[in-house]
Amino acid sequence: MDMVTFTVIVDDIVYPDGHSRMAFLGGGGPQTAFGGKIWADKTDNIGIASGIGSDFPCPCKKWLEDMGIDSSGLLMWSSPTLRAWQILELDGRRTQVWRVSVGDEVWDMLRPPLCSLPMTYRNAKIYHVGVHPSGRDVEFIQELRNSGAEIVSIETYTHALDIVSRSELMALGSAGNIFSTNEKEAASLVGPGSPLEMIERIAELGAEVVTLRRGPSGSIVHRSDTRETWEIPAFHTICTMLKSSIQGEIMMEDVVDPTGCGNTFCGAFLIGYWKTRDLLIAGLWGSIAASFMAEYEGLPPPPLSHWREQAQVRLDILRPYAKKLHMPQ
Fold first, then answer.
1. Strands 219-223 and 209-213
2. Number of H helices and number of E strands within the chain?
3. Which pTM does this prediction carry?
4. What is the reported pLDDT for 150?
5. Tell me: the pLDDT tens digits for 193-231?
6. Are the beta carbons of 309 and 241 closer than 8 angstroms?
7. Which one of 136, 170, 173, 292 has the lowest number of neighbouring Cβ atoms within 10 Å?
């Protein structure tokens, strides 16, 4: 197995205008796997690990199969599949409300212990996992590092509700190789500041690579040892600026749902950085993958070959607008 990502939740989404869509494949893991698959070689194997119940919807299984994502890491549990309402607001806020009873067992369902997974999953080359900002997942991240993996990527999936101590932050920041977060989450961990100031603080915690996701403003990616830093625009933001000049060149839809864009960015960035060790390429791949996710309610449909073809077209458009930044001394 080349890449393994974690966590499946079935989402029932309520949109700001009141309409709803039911039984979407969510939780971050499928979105991360999609981002990776867009840029992975056809021979690269990407798998997803999570606990599921006997009620796991058939359309969700079929999407994974059609996209060529290995599902042997989906372990059958006696409890129902994790399912939740995702209530979206116009300003980007999202509220999750569990639709099933959850207790301590939810953590092992969200990211099963490595020892419970198939051997191919235990020997994966790269991992991506969503983590709680409290640091409760540090031991699990270290287990992934100790497996011999080449790269472990971590992504905070919510902002910190309480102050996280410096020692806890350092344990979390240094646990993986890549640390990905959005601006709200970053500010809750290291305090408010400019994007570059927050990136610098995260890098000081021990993160080797930092990606700061900024929604319509794109992302900033940073490598701590060389201090190389790039600002990558969001694809749709650039297309709005270029609308008249690129009309007819690409197939593109409006942004309809930002849910999962960050996860998709992380999957594509991880594959890109693993394959090339090129920060700019990885950031561009992440932005392009996220642009596809933004155009759909739920996950983009098969076939994967369509997204791979469109990714190359979008890459050529976006690349000239990436900007190298200089970190303050």
1. antiparallel
2. 13, 14
3. 0.94
4. 98
5. 999 999 999 999 999 999 999 999 999 999 999 999 999
6. no
7. 136
